[in-house]
Design goal:
Layout (H helix, E strand, L loop, with lengths): L1 E9 L13 E7 L11 E5 L8 E6 L1 H5 L9 E6 L6 H5 L5
Parallel strand pairs: 3-5
Antiparallel strand pairs: 1-2, 1-4, 2-3, 4-5
Length: about 100
């Protein structure tokens, strides 16, 4: 799974039949550790009802299509909304043997 922030909505005048009714959003992939942009923005189909400017997690490739029952031709899908995340505390702990 990858982290992203929603930048906006994408509308299409014509689209593949199984994409009808699905919300397409423009997302900016982010680095999990520092929240900075990672790569270029891309379009993802929304499988969870996310809104503008929310932080979300998304998948790519075959996993993106599997997020929907009708298997639409998508390369990226938003599959969850991030309420918060924590990285540094877990990385700083040392495991005892």
């Amino acid at each position: 799974m990858k982290c992203a922030r929603i930048l906006g909505r994408v509308t299409c005048s014509r689209q593949y039949e199984t994409l009808r009714g699905k919300k397409l959003l423009l997302i900016q992939p982010l680095d999990w550790e520092n929240g900075k942009p990672k790569g270029s923005p891309l379009v993802a189909a929304d499988a969870c009802g996310s809104g503008s400017t929310e932080f979300v997690y998304w998948v790519a490739s075959r996993e993106a299509a599997v997020a929907f029952e009708d298997l639409p031709p998508v390369d990226a899908a938003i599959i969850g909304i991030i309420e918060g995340h924590q990285v540094k505390d877990f990385r700083s702990r040392e495991r005892s043997a």
